[in-house]
Task: inverse folding
């Protein structure tokens, strides 16, 4: 659906599971964007995280 997000989304899935297990409560897109930005050393906005989550079927728009 969002080909420009495919690479980041795949990397995010790997990194999230390995480095930051998601708690039962979950986390916000802002928190996840910060974790990804810190880990990847790139600027990632919460809006990009939301689009990627929708594209992966992990969230509804």
Result:
């Amino acid at each position: 659906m969002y080909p420009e997000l495919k690479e980041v989304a795949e990397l995010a899935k790997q990194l999230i599971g390995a480095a930051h297990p998601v708690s039962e409560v979950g986390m916000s897109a802002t928190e996840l964007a910060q974790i990804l930005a810190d880990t990847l050393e790139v600027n990632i906005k919460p809006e990009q995280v939301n689009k990627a989550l929708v594209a992966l079927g992990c969230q509804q728009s």
Q: What stands out?
A: The radius of gyration is 11 Å. The chain has a mean pLDDT of 81. The longest helix spans residues 6-19.
